[in-house]
Amino acid sequence: MTIQNNNEVQKIFNKLAEVCTRPGYMYALAYLQARSCFLSYKKNTGLTEESLAPVFSEDALENTEISTLFGLTVKGEIDFSFPGDANLQEMIQTTIELLRKMHLSLLMIDEDEQRLLSISADQKSKLFSNAEHFMEPVFYRMDPAYSFQFTEFAEKMYAKDNEWFLKNKGYSVSDMRNVFERTRDFQNDQPPCKKFEFTAKDIADYACLDLSIVEKALDSFCIPKDNKNERFTSLEDFNIVNASPLIKNEDRYILLQQYRFCEASYESPFYWMIGDSDYKEQAKKNRGAFVEDFAKEKLTSVFGKENVFSNANIYRGKDIVGEIDALVVFADRAIVVQAKAKKLRIESRKGNDQCFKEDFKKAVQDAYDQGLKCAQALERESYKLKDSNDGELNVNRKFKEIYICCLLAEAYPALILQVSEFLKYEKYKEGDKILSPLVLTVFALDTITEMLSTPLYFLSYLEGRAKAKFEIDADDETVVLAHHLKRNLFIGEDCEVLLLDKNCARELEAVMMNRRLKIPGGKDYVEGDIEARRKSFVGKIISFLESDAKPEAIDLGRCLLLYNAEDINKNILRIIEATKKDKGIHDFSMKLKIDDKDIGLVVHCNDFDDLTAFNCLRYFCEKRLADWKLKECHGILIDSMGDIRVCFACLRS
Question: Model-level pTM greater than 0.85?
Fold first, then answer.
């Protein structure tokens, strides 16, 4: 961003401050919040993609914009008197116009000519090489998590700090989560005109909670009466309403931003604790441990505890040459997870290039460098691999693929863009065992493991991300996941850049809310390629393979996720019908390609006894190996009822 344009952003910010401190502006703010964030849905049908349309519309304000308006409002004395219809309408329109100008200025677009401001060719080539140019994607970022993730993860993150909470706040970590989630539910149950204001007794009575606990928890997140948000003097300064999103007016609480309220439960307590000099280091240690524990928990839910190891060390003789925060070994694949709890500082968000790059290095680059070193050491079978108790891990070390995952506790804004511009890594080439890294937040990992909950589906996503021969431009990893669920990530060779709008994630967001908030009647899957395969006969085969730790099962499963499921389904139904009619032998064969290698697939149908049936399958697989000069052939045996008798029989020449 040029200095001249930066000054223009500041001028607009100052004009917004004038509008937001007018008498009765809270009514304008409440209207803008309701217009941008209120959802409605029919009972017993749950949330749908259409339900979220208002939130994803161009007219909806981002949570960062509303937080800015709220932060400017509390800089003055808040006047709760109604300003009158004419004044209210004028304040709303002025706010919307100033926010529009703000966005154009951050995009470096000339408002009059609707074009990019004149910049040199050298500046264009370095457009995102400087942190100043990240101010727009950071500010107008897609929300990095679902609100329910903040409250759920806050309880896990601060579980080891429970004694500090009881001693210093008078309530437990689980109390905090309970109060926050019941407050959310109470708000959601109120009519629009009563959503923003309530008492502690309202929440206590609604949820049958102890009134004193509710008051203590809510008071912890109220803006102090003597705080006028003095530090909030420019767009990316510290804004008190992000840390303390509640206003207390006598015995009543005003909560405009439910999302910020939930986010504060995850973010704010850490700053309370590091402000305690006696507890500061312990708080940091516990936060780091949370990310590692979280990685193990989520990966275990997919791969099983027998395949996931935390704090695994690699030894060369007596020397440790690699420390892995979480390691998955499944079939002939490995996932190396390096977890970081480094936060993005205020100076970085303001465009301080040195701070921005320092934070990125400590959070992402260091995690990748450590992960790469560990992945390379894993390939050396002479090196010992030991668990956290110093016991040797006797796992398969003949890896076909090793994935590196950098996991962050911080909801880093514009993370995909940051990674594409700043991460220095070894890009995947055909034949490499160590694949390109994937950088995720704990929120993204949670969503991926929720929607791709078996080894085959999870590994398939990692592979699609790591082997992509195209750039991905998306606001958040959940947008990429949504695209994968709808259309699969394996895209043709002619694709150079995959541009994904946040609207791609609308259905996924509705599904996640239905699942995790247990909304009655809500659809719990995303319509698209992945779900279509699950419901087809191909999905029936995949269900036999998806948790099988044999390498050949993973290979065959990958093929079935890659290839046209409709064609395979038609052929399977054809041979089933033929066997029903004549009680004979019927099969179909096809060539598949994995990693530029041709393999065969034979689906064989008969109703013979097991030994005879299997020998028939073996015969046809051997015939395809010879006729097509293949090195490998997979066989599937089914009967005329459509039941799978043998899931695969992998033969090699």
Answer: yes
